[in-house]
Design a protein that fits this description.
Elements (H helix, E strand, L loop, with lengths): L3 H15 L3 H9 L5 H7 L19 E2 L3 E16 L8 E9 L6 E7 L4 E8 L1 E7 L5 E7 L1 E6 L3 E2 L4 E8 L33 H7 L6 E13 L2 E11 L11 E12 L1
Antiparallel strand pairs: 1-9, 2-3, 2-4, 2-13, 3-6, 4-5, 5-8, 6-7, 8-10, 10-11, 11-12, 12-13
Length: 264
C-alpha cells in the first residue's frame, strides 16, 4: 500500500510528458535544425562534391602574393593510359568513376601564394578513387594535391596557367594488413603454415613484402574567371595509379575538371 503514492507520482510524471504539445517536444528535440534540413536535401544527391563556381564573364585580377584558401578541385573526367599493341601505342582512354559514387573532389586546401606560386600547406588534399577502364580493369588511385607547388604569372587572372608538381601518397599504407605494423616492409607471419618468402623470385617478394610507395604528379591550374577575391577555372593533373604497396606497376592517370578558390 505504501508504494501507491510513489506509483501515482511516476504515472503522473509520464502522462505530463505524453500530453505535452507536439510543437514543444519537437522544438526541444530538433532545435533550430542547425543545417540538418540542408544535409537532408544534399545527401546522396551528388552535390556534396561539387566545387563552387563563378558567373560566366567574371573578369578581374588578384595579386599572386599572400595566401589562398578553400581551393577545391572536382574531377569531371578521368583517363587511364593502357598498354598498346603492335599497331597502336599506349594512349589515354576514358574511364568511369565507380567509387566513391558522389564525391571524388579535394577541398578546403589552403597554402601560400608567395612568388606567384600555389604552395599547398594542408586541407582535404587527397581523395581515394577507383575507376573502371574500357577493358574491364579497375584502377584505384589517390587523387592528390599534397605538397603542390604550381607557378605561373604574377597575378591570378583569366588566361593565366599555374603549372607544377604534386606528391601522390600510397593508396594504402604498409600497416593495412596488421594494425600493429608487423607486416610493414617485413613480410607477414602466418600461423597456418610457412609462406614463400620470395628468395630469388622477385614476384613472390613483391607480393609478400608491402611498402609505402608514393609517387609524383604534374598539375596545371588554368584560371578563366575572377571576381573579387575568388577565382575559378579548370585543371589537368597527370599522376600514377595505385601500385598495391609495391606489388604492381602503376599506370598513368589523367584527371581533368573544375577548380575554385579564394585568396585569404
Amino acid at each position: 500500500m505504501r508504494f501507491r503514492p510513489l506509483l501515482a507520482l511516476v504515472l503522473a510524471f509520464c502522462l505530463t510528458f505524453a500530453a505535452a504539445p507536439n510543437s514543444v517536444s519537437a522544438a526541444f528535440v530538433q532545435g533550430r535544425e542547425r543545417g540538418n534540413s540542408d544535409f537532408g536535401k544534399s545527401v546522396n544527391s551528388g552535390q556534396n562534391g561539387v566545387c563552387r563556381t563563378l558567373p560566366s564573364g567574371s573578369s578581374g585580377s588578384i595579386s599572386a602574393d599572400g595566401s589562398f584558401k578553400e581551393l577545391c578541385l572536382q574531377p569531371t573526367q578521368i583517363f587511364v593510359k593502357l598498354e598498346g599493341n603492335a599497331r597502336q601505342s599506349a594512349d589515354f582512354v576514358p574511364a568511369k568513376i565507380i567509387s566513391p559514387r558522389f564525391n571524388s573532389s579535394v577541398d578546403q586546401v589552403y597554402g601560400d601564394l608567395s612568388g606567384g606560386k600555389f604552395t599547398a600547406k594542408g586541407g582535404i588534399d587527397f581523395s581515394l578513387i577507383t575507376v573502371l577502364a574500357p577493358n574491364g580493369e579497375e584502377f584505384p588511385l589517390a587523387f592528390s594535391v599534397k605538397d603542390m607547388v604550381a607557378g605561373g604569372g604574377k597575378s591570378i587572372a583569366p588566361g593565366e596557367d599555374f603549372t607544377g608538381t604534386t606528391a601522390i601518397p600510397s593508396y594504402r599504407t604498409g600497416d593495412f594488413l596488421d594494425p600493429k605494423s608487423r607486416a610493414k616492409d617485413t613480410g607477414v607471419d602466418y600461423a597456418q603454415g610457412l609462406v614463400a618468402l620470395g628468395g630469388d623470385d622477385e614476384e613472390l617478394a613483391k607480393e609478400n613484402i608491402k611498402q609505402d610507395l608514393g609517387g609524383d604528379g604534374q598539375i596545371t591550374l588554368s584560371i578563366d574567371r575572377v571576381a573579387g577575391n575568388e577565382f575559378a577555372g579548370t585543371f589537368v593533373a597527370v599522376q600514377p595509379s595505385d601500385n598495391d604497396l609495391g606489388s604492381k606497376d602503376p599506370v598513368d592517370v589523367k584527371l581533368t575538371g573544375n577548380l575554385y578558390g579564394r585568396k585569404a
